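Sequence in, structure out. Go.
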Amino acid sequence: MTKTILVLAANPKNTPRLRLDQEVREIDNGLQRARRRDEFILKQVWAVRRSDFRRAMLDLKPNIVHFCGHGSGEDGIAFEDENGLAKLISTEALSGFFELFADTVECVVLNACYSEVQAEAIAKHIPYVIGMNKAIGDTAAIEFAVAFYDALGAGESFEFAYKLACNAIQLAGTPENLTPTLKPKSHPSQTYTASMASGPSIYHSDSGIYYYGAYRALTFTEKDRGRILKITVDSKSRPVCWVELWRGIYEGGDPIEWTRRRVHITRSGNQPHPNPSLTWRIEPGGYTIYFVASNRTGKASSEAISYQIEVN
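Output:
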């Protein structure tokens, strides 16, 4: 899927000069040579005003928004007014604005001094937001931005790109590698609970074992990337129980890749089963979770297996 990066640049006439042209040029050069260059479209808006910002967001529906310019802490970040002078955009206004575009925006980078407060507010709505916890110099800001998009262009995640970009500042010999801060969106925990049907479903003639099963299908998008999926099973008195998690990547409605994880336990004597659990760091795709139990009687049991799925 092609992602659109929207770069917003503002250096009002009454603010110190910044090397924004170099920053944007180097980002563009990096993406042009990237292995996955065909997956990104870079759009630029210069001397950005409030109306320019609004129209670009409506017209382009970007997935990544990158602001480079000046920040003023609690007072906001500096766009330009009609006369080219600084016009501060408040934290509340920015947060509310990005809330309206939460369905399409995956990441916001505020490459501006003291922009951590805005990043915190925007992260209530957007999965990944980067701000600066203090002033940042031109050199460090450019090193960070270029390395960040180099990593994305190589197919890396937002978290990896952030870490690599901080390291790029360190490699350049500037002491500002701790200035950028990543604010991932906090997700409310989701829990699914159910019990497996107790009647037999499949008889395996070679082993003489009856298998009972249930499954749940879940779909996760780019906004869920990095969340933790945890599956816990209470197997009661079943002799054998296992849980399998299959993740599928689809293209045109058909699966093109499957990844499988399995947890299997076998009862020993009269000892109760432990409660097995399986965890998975979510990548976008379709997930199918299978819960399987077995016995040799073929009779329905009142002790159905219970399971819980948590997404954090």
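Check: The radius of gyration is 25 Å. The helical segments are 20-33, 50-60, 91-100, 116-122, 138-153, 158-171.
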